[in-house]
Amino acid sequence: MAGEERMKDMPHTIILEGREKLSVSGVIDVQSFDEEQVLLETVRGMLVVRGQGLHVERLQLEAGELIVEGEVGCLEYDDSVQPRGGWLSRLFGR
Predict the structure, then answer these.
(1) Labelling 15: which of 40, 73, 75, 84 has CA 20 to 30 A away?
(2) What is the pTM (predicted TM-score) of this model?
């Protein structure tokens, strides 16, 4: 739990370069991703990235950083989506 609390204090930034490269900090977890949508849990809430040909170029959860490349069409915070917990907690049923 202490690690999760520390992560909540991380800065959150979004940098979109030419609608082709998206850098996000303050990432807690990646809930799901495919070529059309990436669903992220950030320190500021659930972030939905929509587009075409999306792929995760780099993911460093320890640092809270993510880079997505592809054609980004939409960035939206969606408070109706609930975080599911990390993939390890889902795997072990915690």
Answers:
(1) 84
(2) 0.80
